[in-house]
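Quick one, probably user error.
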């Protein structure tokens, strides 16, 4: 099926999520820059499933998180702009395409900004661990991360099921 290519304006929700995600992410980068001279040469390089440090590395590895975050935000932003290429149920048609596109785009926007905020949180927590202000990411990090990314998908699937 050739899906229509629609130009749907961004919603206030999408703008708000982008602003919130960017504030957290940029805040983490500012924290990195401000803390740089105090950060020791060895910082957490990896965490296990319990949120405990299982590898230490150079403090320059802290730049990996912002680089991945920017790349992810940029790539997911591109996919947001082309909702007609997303995967949809077979029942999509010209009369319901706008509803499917908007719902899919909002889900992608939320997940994009949750990931951005989580990368910011990991960066801040890694700096805090390196400085001795914290011990780990915390046992709750992995469950919260998984819920934060799975719940929007579940809500989107429920919304898809309600589109006529």
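Nope, works fine. Designed sequence:
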């Amino acid at each position: 099926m050739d899906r229509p290519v629609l130009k749907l304006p961004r919603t206030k929700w999408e703008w708000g999520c982008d602003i919130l995600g960017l504030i957290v992410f940029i805040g983490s980068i500012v924290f990195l820059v401000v803390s740089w001279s105090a950060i020791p040469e060895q910082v957490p390089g990896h965490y296990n499933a319990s949120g405990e440090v299982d590898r230490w590395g150079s403090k320059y590895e802290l730049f990996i998180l912002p680089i991945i975050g920017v790349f992810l935000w940029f790539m997911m932003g591109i996919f947001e702009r082309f909702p007609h290429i997303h995967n949809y149920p077979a029942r999509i048609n010209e009369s319901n395409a706008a509803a499917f596109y908007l719902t899919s785009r909002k889900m992608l926007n939320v997940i994009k900004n949750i990931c951005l905020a989580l990368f910011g949180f990991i960066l801040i927590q890694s700096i805090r661990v390196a400085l001795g202000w914290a011990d780990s990411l915390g046992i709750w990090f992995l469950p919260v991360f998984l819920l934060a990314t799975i719940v929007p998908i579940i809500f989107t699937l429920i919304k898809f099921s309600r589109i006529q």
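The beta strands are 42-47, 53-58.
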